[in-house]
Amino acid sequence: MYIARWCSLLILMIIADSGISTAVAQTVQPYTGLDKKLDSFKKEDDLTEWLYLRIDHSYHNPAQSLSFLMRTQKEIWRKPKRTAEKEAWLILLSNQAYNLLYTGNILESINYYEHSYNYFTENKLNVAGIAEYIFKPWANNYTRLGDYERALFIQKQTLEYALKENDRQLAAATYNNMAISYRSLGDYKNAERCVKSGLERLVDGSETEILLKNTLADIYKDNGNIKLAEQTITENIQQQKKRKPDFETAYWLLSSYITAGDIALLKGNFIVAQEFYHQALVINDRYYNGNRRREQAYATTQLGNVKLKQNKSAEAERYFNQTLHVLGLTGNGRLVRDQIFGDNRLIDVFYQKGLAALQTGNQKAALENIELSLLAADKVRFELADVRTKQRFQAETKEKAEQAIGIAYNLLEKTGQYQYALTILDIMEQGKARTLLESIRNNQQQLTLQTEDTLFASKQGLERAIAYNEKELMQQHSGAHGEHREPRKQLERETLNKNNEVLKFRLENLEKVLREKYPSITKAGRSAKLTVAGLLNKIPRKSRVVQFFVGQKNIYVLEVKNQRIRHIKRITNAGSIKQEIADFVRIYYHDGPAAMMNNPKVFYEASHHIYQTLLSELGIDNNEQVIIITDEVLGNLSFDGLITEKKYSTAISQWPYLIKMASISYAFSIQTLINQSQVRQNAGHRFAGLFITHQNSDKQFIPAVAKEASSIKKIVSGSFLMDEAAGIKDFLNAFDNASVLHISTHSYLSGVQKEPTLAFNDNDVFLFELSARKNAPSLVVLSACQTADGMMAKGEGIISLSRGFAAIGAQSTIAGLWNVNDDAAARITADVYHNILNGNTGSNALHLAKMNWLNGTRNGEQEYLPYYWDALIFMGHDQKLILKPAASPMIAYLLYIGLAAFISFTIWFVLRRLRLKAEYLLR
Q1: How many degrees, rounded to 5, is the angle at CA 413 between CA 407 and CA 416?
Q2: What is the CA radius of gyration of the chain?
Q3: Which residues contact 459 (CB under 8 A, 6 or more apart)?
Q4: How does pLDDT run across 94-127, given as a tens digit for each residue?
Q5: DSSP characters for 67-105?
Q6: How far apart are CA 798 and CA 70, in angstroms?
Q7: 175, 520 contact by CB (below 8 A)
Q8: Helix ranges restricted to H, 289-430
Q9: 874 by DSSP, 3-state: which?
Q10: What is the DSSP string of 468-517?
Q11: Taking a C-beta distance cutoff of 8 angstroms, is the pair 176, 212 a contact?
């Protein structure tokens, strides 16, 4: 019986999915006496029929269906027990998910499809139509959000199901959906492979062939092969025209027309493109009553883009407004802002509407619309699960952010109104380390909620399992050359990747459960973005903040002083400047000191040119505290060593470095800086140092580590762990208990993703293994190579170990940008602790240590070059740190002498008393 139910409901769902459920409602009369029938089934304890009656009623009464369906959980009198009841409950959950989607609530729809999937797997149900009813719409929801990684996970589950059931039609359709996901990620090789696999599994006369060839044309188009794309879609349309479209097949033709329109638009054939989009809309009206809304929204937006390309901005704006109406957004100003939800269609249409306003010269309207586009993007990004997916999405929205900043800058120049300066800072902050900010806030919020709730333990278990798998993958990749290409190794990697996908899905679902159970977690994430006024008010009044935004065309420099924006500069030719800085860092720092030593004048001039380009107009005063927030390639640059004056001198020790004018620290963003100042730190004044020389390992021996440990031990009192005593467990224990944690070891970037890695005595620790701790040090000193370096994530910053420690709770770090000189690092870090004991903040302690190097006597002039002294940078919240000084050798010697004298006197005194007592007794 349940198969018939599934089939009939599946047909109704297909009708509803086509958007004609309102037409059905006009021809089918609502149930009469519904409550009476429901009560009858309840009295008979017939839960199956009670559920199906509710589902059937929702189909025939779509206007009431969502509220009616969503009340089911409250009105049910017991949980499903028998198989038929569980099948009915599964159908109910999937219907709730679909109805939520139909009303535009994609995020809740995803949640209910997840509930459906979990219920299906937990109860081991074996029902027909599961792929069509749950898997496909669920994956499509993730596609709508732009979370193609999650979409692929579900699509792979669907494919596995299809192959198991030998459902070749479903397998072909699933391969098509996977191809779309891969194409959206820019992975055209895998996208083409999926299309080919789908074509191989087609049954004779399958309409899915049309869909696959539509997708193939899109792949060719996106990959730049316009000629082949046009040929493929033309043949596909001609093949469809030989058949009479019906309710189901018309959709394929609609999709083909849209793809053909996109290709024509790329070629500049505007009239042809316009005709194709109109044909798509005609099919939507004729066969689907105009209710395939997402397709309608896309085609309408593209018609607006055609007009935009023809400089017909007024006509373009009318089309864009039609799109907003189709998507359910009406009204103006605050009303529209409150209606915005996370969807790629909204991101695109608001951006295009902004460009249309810009074309007419209405910069204010252009800025407002692009800000709305960024708001829709922010709503999507917040809901994405995987960190790398968030980072990819952040990078994709940076172009829009640059456009908005450019418009705001023009308006600021034109009007002089301070509000536009605030807008620029606001958009800059949106493009800075948002994933890190969420990690800091969410980790801290979850840690404050940790009780005996087993959900938190389960979450930690999943995180550890994921980290273990990722570590295995990383270490396999870092093995012998070509080893990972062996069939056995390749199979192991595929298994690990597959397991990790399952674990990440389970973790995402568990995090949603935790957010539902503890709303403050969601609140912490959503409220992470302070108002601009709030940001400015929390910046230390005496500090000057210099924030950079590096775009494709321009670089923007924004300066805050005395909690007010004082200066904004636009630097053109961003591409050439980025290349100049990248070459400068590589030649003079990453490749070693040779180029700097061999031609110091060339280095001097190159350094001064970068200073002139980035900072010359700011007028930095002597002894000023400056916080620099970098972006993209600037994150590889240490500003201390920049040359501030043009006139060259052969006396390197006298060079005018920026460090001689100002004390510089760094932050990932203003928001992360504020949040780092609020995280829970370890109590007390404990120092812990882990020093690994690698003397008895296969890694390169570092003799300077022992020297560094010896130097610091003479200055600071604390726990000093050497080699065998400095393993991963020791590191975690020290992190949890020390107020200042010092780590001196090898550090390097592993694998294709340049994963930051620390080498401890017993094993390596990768950045992704670091998870939030209840307490954290106020300062972590990473006296190792490249600990502030890593892969550059556009819109996020450098993914470094310094960043990783910030995410798990460290308030600040001192880390290295390049391979540090061992002797210089040992001397400078020792001086840092000496300066901390003298009452300096962490940042000033490093500043004075560098200045001490420059003011001291060195072995030669070349040692005054910044390669030697400028590798370490301070990142994060600056504050005074209290440590216990080490006892001096003289004091220890005197204490030893005193103790020995006391013991000698005590022995003499006791013996004397005994002798006197014996003499007394003998008398």
Answers
A1: 115
A2: 33
A3: 446, 507, 510, 511, 514
A4: 888 888 876 667 777 888 888 888 888 889 887 7
A5: HHHHTHHHH-SS---SHHHHHHHHHHHHHHHHHHHHTT-
A6: 45
A7: no
A8: 293-309, 313-326, 334-339, 344-359, 363-383, 387-396, 398-415, 418-430
A9: strand
A10: HHHHHHHHHHTSSTTGGGSHHHHHHHHHHHHHHHHHHHHHHHHHHHHHHH
A11: yes
- Within 8 A by CB and 6+ apart from 81, the residues are none
Amino acid letter, residue 272: V
- pTM listed for this prediction: 0.81
Q: Which residues pair with 449 in a beta bridge?
A: none
- Antiparallel, parallel or unpaired: β 764-766 and 755-759: antiparallel
User: Over the stretch 22-69, which tens digit does the pLDDT of each residue have?
Assistant: 333 333 344 457 889 999 999 999 999 999 998 888 877 766 677 888
Burial state string for 848-868 with b = 16 or more CB within 10 A and e = fewer than 16: bbbbbbbeeebeeeebbbbbb
Concatenating the DSSP letter of every residue in 116-145 gives: HHHHHHHTT---TTHIIIIIHHHHHHHHHH
Q: First and final CA of the chain: distance in angstroms?
A: 117
> Nearest 5°: phi and psi at 292?
-80, 80
What are 138's two structure tokens? 């669920």
- Return all residues near 548 (Cβ < 8 A) that are at least 6 apart: 555, 556, 557, 558, 614, 628, 629, 630, 631, 634
pLDDT over 90, % of the chain: 44
3-class state of residue 814 by DSSP = strand
The gap from C-alpha 591 to its chain's centroid, in whole angstroms, comes to 30
Which two structure tokens, joined as six digits, stand for 849? 């240590």
Residues 247 and 17 sit within 8 Å (Cβ to Cβ): no
The whole-number pLDDT of residue 652 equals 96
Backbone angles phi, psi at 408, to 5 degrees: -60, -35
> Structure tokens of 528?
């992470």
* Angstrom distance (rounded) from CA 807 to CA 389: 17
Q: Which amino acid is at 93?
A: L
Cα gap 352→305, rounded to integer Å: 7
Separation of alpha carbons 32 and 57, rounded Å: 10
Report the distance separating Cα 520 and Cα 116, nearest Å: 26
Contacts of 898 (CB under 8 A, 6+ apart): none
